[in-house]
Design goal:
The chain is an alpha+beta fold. Helix content is 39%, strand content 26%.
């Protein structure tokens, strides 16, 4: 005895099979793109299994951006060349979207990791930092880092790198040891994400040993960061470390509350050291 194969399907069943809303199927019916195969005695309209390939093709072409009017045209041609050309014409656009989403995923992952590492404690740690790409200029000069340099770097890196980076300031070793935490040496952008630029303002900071600490800053003059630096300097002295380079003050996240937009800044502080 043969197995009876179902041939007709309700709009609700087709909706579930192709993961498309019934409203969309009704719209396709209304504009004449694809209509149900027959109407039953109960007044319900049914799609045939023979229409499934057509439904699948329509859903795909609509998903890549083919307009209804063009769909009418290419689905009523005598050969497959119209559909083939339409698919090929969208391949580059699809690839761009994939790249954009991959970049977005990387950005979200990096920011999430930096928030988890920065925004929940002020414990001092000694760690090997990853490779860091730093785009910076010295403070107090006419050519201090500006939009022109940023735009040029974005073009060289296809617009991606600055989106990964955090704003930073640096403090030189002498000012750190003198307790002057507000005389900044450089200003710029920093990221773990590789920067493919030939900018003369870009440098690669190799992995190195750093004393690190997080700081939550609310005062506009940033004076509340002093206690964190003091704590780090005491740690360095008491644990037999020597400062060997400029500190990096990395702004990981800003939040604001209320109509007056009182900001809260979250910083990661890095002081490069060596063990005595």
């Amino acid at each position: 005895m043969g197995v009876h194969m179902k041939e007709l399907y309700t709009i609700g069943e087709v909706s579930k099979i192709f993961n498309v809303s019934t409203d969309t199927l009704r719209f396709y019916d209304k504009v004449g793109l694809i209509k149900p195969w027959k109407e039953g005695d109960n007044g319900y309209r049914y799609y045939s299994k023979a229409q499934f390939e057509m439904i699948s093709t329509i859903i795909l072409l609509r998903a890549i951006g083919t307009p209804i009017k063009k769909l009418h045209h290419i689905l009523n041609q005598q050969d497959a060349s119209g559909i083939e050309h339409e698919l090929l014409s969208h391949m580059g656009e699809i690839e761009c979207k994939i790249n954009e989403l991959q970049c977005l995923k990387q950005q979200a992952s990096l920011l999430c990791a930096n928030i988890q590492d920065t925004c929940y404690n002020e414990e001092i740690s000694v760690r090997k930092t990853p490779k860091l790409w730093l785009l910076s200029k010295e403070f107090g000069r006419e050519d201090e880092l500006d939009m022109e340099v940023i735009i040029r770097t974005m073009k060289e890196t296809k617009g991606n790198w600055v989106s990964f980076a955090n704003i930073i300031s640096t403090i030189d070793k002498e000012n750190l040891e003198a307790g002057d935490y507000h005389s900044y040496k450089k200003y710029g952008y920093l990221s773990e994400h590789p920067c493919n630029s030939n900018s003369k303002y870009l440098e690669l900071i190799e992995s190195r040993l750093c004393v690190c600490c997080n700081a939550k800053v609310k005062r506009i003059d940033h004076n509340d960061i002093d206690r964190v630096y003091d704590k780090m300097m005491e740690f360095i002295k008491n644990n037999g470390y020597t400062i060997i380079g400029d500190a990096i003050e990395r702004n990981v996240l800003d939040l604001y509350q209320g109509k007056d937009k009182e900001y809260t800044h979250y910083f990661k502080l890095y002081i490069p050291v060596t063990k005595n």
